[in-house]
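Quick one: examine the sequence and fold tokens given here and explain what the tokens say about the fold. Here goes:
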Amino acid sequence: MSDILCYGSICADLYIWLPYWPQPGRGLHALNSRWMAGGNALNEARALIRLGVQPLLYGDLLGYDPAGDLIATELTTLGLMTHIERRADVATPVCHILITPDGERTIIALRQQTAAAPPQPDQLAMTQIVSVSRYGLHTTDVVLLARRLNRFVVAGDVADPTHPLAQAADVIVTSADLLGADPLHQATMLQQVRGAPIFLTAGAQPARVLVSGTWHAVTPVSSVVTNTTGAGDVFRAGVVYGIWQGWDWEAILAFATRVATEFVASRHGYTG
């Protein structure tokens, strides 16, 4: 079994590059489009594989539909299909991701007749680190079970200190956009729940980690940004990898920032 388990959303992403944001009542021609296998859990697991780790992946069930075929092919290539089920009575989740030239994106998720298969207690008990994003089905149940089993929990995309993921996490990885007008204060509130280090991303602005009330920051290398989709998941993979390696928090911050920046920089033009 693997030391790391990723749980959350597994979906087919349709990237649509637009020359500008649509105006009400007016049409426009897209610049390009592309289908890719995605979702926060799959994005994170794929990044971990690129770092040399073979995690376990659990999450959404796949349907017997074109979107499910796309994802199943990707997961088989990555060696991640083992714990993913396909059923005729479910539809594979799909996200339409609209991207404008400034790198801004809007995600429209389609979840009709979708379902997920969370890991069982014995499967969680055989791992060391359980990484879960707030997005997806049954994420709270998985985190609470991992907490009861005394697994090390990394929780992604948490903003509310009262959320069960904040109550159970050993480490939180989130973004300034999610934390509102005063992200540093909100991150401090998150840490006060149970003392978990808080990793905070902010696009091209410095990434930070809050440890025992002290902030540490790393400024990403400047690059042209055309598509940031999945960058937060790759950053979280970098954090999980650093924890697995036993690095200190500042080293983990620097590494996660670098791998996320390299990921964004590799996505030129309309290739997705």
Q: What stands out?
A: The first helix runs from residue 40 to 50. The two ends are 32 Å apart (CA to CA). The longest strand covers residues 11-17.
